[in-house]
Design brief:
5-stranded parallel beta sheet; 14 helices; alpha/beta; Rossmann fold; 8-stranded mixed beta sheet; 2 domains; 21 strands; binds cytidine-5'-monophosphate; 402 residues
Length: 402
Amino acid sequence: MLNGKRILLIITGGIAAYKSLDLIRRLRDAGAAVTPVMTRSAAEFVTPLSVSSLAGQAVHQDLFDLTQESEIGHIQLSRSADLIVVAPATADIMAKAAQGHANDLATTVLLATDTPVLMVPAMNVRMWDHPATQRNVSLLQQDGVAFVGPDVGGMACGEFGAGRMSEPAEILAAIAAHFGPKPLAGRRVLVTSGPTHEPIDPVRYIANRSSGAQGAAIATALRDLGADVIFVTGPADAPTPQGVTEISVETAAQMMAAVLDHLPVDAAVFAAAVADWRVENASSHKVKKVAGALPELSLTENPDILAQVSQLQTGRPDLVVGFAAETNDVIENAKAKRQRKGCDWIVANDVSPETGIMGGSENQVSLITGAGVTPWPRLSKTETGQKLAQSIADHFNTAEPR
Ligand code: C5P
């Protein structure tokens, strides 16, 4: 998969550095050569001996190491790779790289290089959310740096949130995608994701349990195949992938407007769990609790975004993909939904509580097209997203029947 590729892996000082050992092993198994660079603080977390043993190469640590400079100067080091991967990338290295500091080997390599850079952030959720870090991420993106993650989850410090380093398998997939073909280059694809929130009053709302994980995985995979991705997301737990155009909305009506605003597109994937109803008489002020008296909420139907876009007379995307989350008669219900809504494909999944799919990290779906039903194996949401993105790419490349 990565035969002959040269990866310069910069390991910086974070507890997630232990995952980089596994990453090195996977990279080498995939055929890549790994040249490791470690910062001083990285060596507090993993030993240079472990890193060099796994990489099969000496670790570069010092900017002013005479032996190493005479063998391979830091400028040459920075350019002798096909890709530079920074994993884990601490808030500190991101800040330094964003500002162009060059006060150790890692930062000097990043400043001197003309090689593409992929960063894999890992830090405490507050550090990740801090405006300074977010500013640095956006500066680095403007400079062409690509990112994988961070994931949402529990952290070594006991807190929970965005900031966990992506798993080695996911990093490897992103590296493979970097070198892989870009069959969707030049294609614009819109993805809806996450739940919607329908206000009852300024502080209360109706919502659902969608995490947005599957939608984010689909957007990531489409991006990796070269698509220009418009990501219209409700208030989701899963972070928006880097390198897509994010349009944040709250309600179904806002999602509808945002989708129409961003047409035309080549393909649209409606993975959002849109609320079916909204409160017609939502209050503009907080409804007071009055003992013994319940507020009267009157519900009205939300626009069906998938159906409306599928049935557009002009400007309909070439390929419209909907989802059907069902708890019984999954395939029959999904087939009927495909007909009723007028979309081209339906991704059908069983979300009965015993499947653990809703809110979990795996999915088991069937793809329903005009040509029939194809059951896919139980896969991670990342892999399900990749398989769907590949099917979309195949559709455009072979113009298979919809
Ligand atoms: O009708 P149901 O909600 O089961 O259909 C699911 C599919 O329709 C999903 O693809 C979802 O994103 C889409 N949908 C929509 N707008 C709605 C309701 C569902 O786009 N108001």
